[in-house]
Structures are given as C-alpha cells and as structure tokens.
C-alpha cells in the first residue's frame, strides 16, 4: 500500500506514531538494523582475518631491498601500524590471490626506505642460487655517467642461444664511446640436464664475464623467475645504473636512440616505457602457452602491462619493485606480473612507439625491434644500417 498523505497513517496501517512523518514501516527498521549488525560482524571478521596473516616471526629491514632478519633486535612496527596500510584497491574490490597483503605498497616502500621494520611474512622468496654471477660488472671498471645517465642492459637468453649472445657482443664491441656508461649482461636458467651442456655456458662466462645464471630450468613458463632474477641482480649488483633496458636476445637495440630518449626526460626517474597493453584478458585454456589458472590469478583482466620483449625503466622504480616482490605472489606470465607490481606502486606505464614488436625495418629511428633468429639476419640489418650511414656522410 502506498501512502499519499502521512496524516492518514495509523498504527493499524503498519507504522509507528513517532515515525509517521518519515513514512518508514517498523518491519523495514528491523531489516535495516539486522543488516547493519551483520555488516559490522563481517567487517570485524575480515579485520581478524587480516591480522592472522601478519606473523611475528620475521622482520624486514633494508634500505633498498627487503631482506630477512629473524634475529633483529630493533623493535618492529606494531600490528596497528601495519593495519594502517590496509587499502582495498580500486582495480578490484575482491581480495587478490596474487598477494597476501592488500596494503598501500607506496607508503610501505617509503617507510622501509626510512629504516622502519614490519612483521610481514614474505610469500615469494626465490629458492634458487647463482651458478654464474659477474658481481663486479658495474664496479670494475666503475660504471660512469654521461649527463647523469648510466644504463644497464639485461638480456633474457637461453643456454642454446650462444649465436645470438655472440652477435650482440660483436655489434657492441666497436661502440666504444658508450662502454664507460653502459653495461650488458645476459640472464639464463639451466638446461633440463645441466650436466650435459652447462659446461659450455661456464666456459662462455669465463671468457666474457657477462652471464647471470641461476639453477632453475630455462623454459618459457619460468620467465617470471628469470625476470625477477634480473630485477634483484640489478638492484644488488648494479645500483649505480640510473636506467635499465630489459629485452630478449632476439631483439636489437639502438643505444644512441635509447640514450637520447632517457636524456630527453625532465623527470628521468619516472621512466617505465615500452609497448603498452591494456585490458588484456587472462587466458584460461590449459592448452595455451599463456594459460594461467584461477588459483594463480583470479581476475579475468590483467592490469596495464608492457610487453616483456623489450622495455626501459629507471633504477628508482627497479628498487621499489624489488622491495615488494617478496610480498606479491608470482604469476607465470612475467610481463603481466610486472604490470601487477607496477599497479600496486601506482607506477604509470608509458607506451613508446619506438619500441616495436615488428621487424627492424628502420634501425635509425627505433630504440628496440625484433625479428632475429640467426646471426646472419642481424648482420644483414646491421650492414644495411652502416651502409646508409656511410652514404649520408659521403653526401
């Protein structure tokens, strides 16, 4: 029954005298009260659930990256301080399966850098160890700067791809004017049976001292392990670099254009650029190489991410990402996982047209391009590039 005139409402019509002007039936008041009680109970239960995820056995304290220190004597931040970080992401209101702590990681990183400690249990700590590790790559000789810019190039490679690594070395060797402020290392896992072939990698590293290798199996679905190894190695052993180029070994990079691109930025710490992907769906087909299960990542859409074949970012952001990696559960797809980490740090990813996933048709303009599967292909493109340069000089 709809009431058009509150003056005609009586008790027998289902409303109380004291509430006639509000026109709210008593049964609705009881429903509102019951729902409010249930909501308060759910919120209290959720808070208690969050507190269960904050054990008191591990403390973290490091300036640039998070390390474990169970014997620390410093008084860690109390639980109430940690809970101040709780902040449901606008990306999705459901609790992520990709990490344990739905917190303000921007503030978390700042406070870690300020020397504070937190009782947060790491959930993504690598069990793998280095087989080869050029620890002095950026310190001996010292990595210098050109107009306050120095670059570390991390190249994801496979043990069998010696021909691609060697081609990159050959092309890099004559560019001596860049050697003082640029370093190159290759990121590798191991063969399925490392006893048979890894000796070749050890000999190669002994000759060139540029291979970072850990003892995980080198395969496509372990690319996240390789990517995180690169981030952690860069922060630990080459923090002198101001920027990092991360790319595959079948890509070519134009160091002149990369250097100019970085130096053109007013705020160089804000660089995180490559080929940007937006609203990419999560692949649920088990037969696909891009398959990710609901248990691994529950959302149907990935946050913005850069295609993992080639992208550039600042050491400023690399240190932030390395700090939160232990607290964000991994995803098999490495580029989308970096996108998740960037989202949690409020990092704006930039689309840069001179990073291309197409063939290297014009190396004079691009920063990075793909299409190489053999030494002959790279040398052919390089020869064309040199010939065009010589022609310009003669003209």
UniProtKB/TrEMBL annotation:
Gene3D superfamilies: 3.90.550.50
Record keywords, A-Z: Glycoprotein, Glycosyltransferase, Golgi apparatus, Membrane, Signal-anchor, Transferase, Transmembrane, Transmembrane helix
Any one GO molecular-function label of the UniProt entry: hexosyltransferase activity
Chief site of localization: Golgi
Subcellular location field: Golgi apparatus membrane
Membrane topology note: Single-pass type II membrane protein
Transmembrane segments: 29-46
Alphabetized InterPro entries for the sequence: Glyco_trans_31 (IPR002659)
GO CC terms of this entry: Golgi membrane
UniProt feature coiled coil, ranges: none
Any single biological process term in GO: protein O-linked glycosylation
Keyword Cell wall biogenesis/degradation: no
E.C. code: 2.4.1.-
Family of this protein: Belongs to the glycosyltransferase 31 family.
Protein name: Hexosyltransferase
Species the sequence originates in: Crassostrea virginica (Eastern oyster)
Lineage: Eukaryota, Metazoa, Spiralia, Lophotrochozoa, Mollusca
Gene name linked to the record: LOC111119565
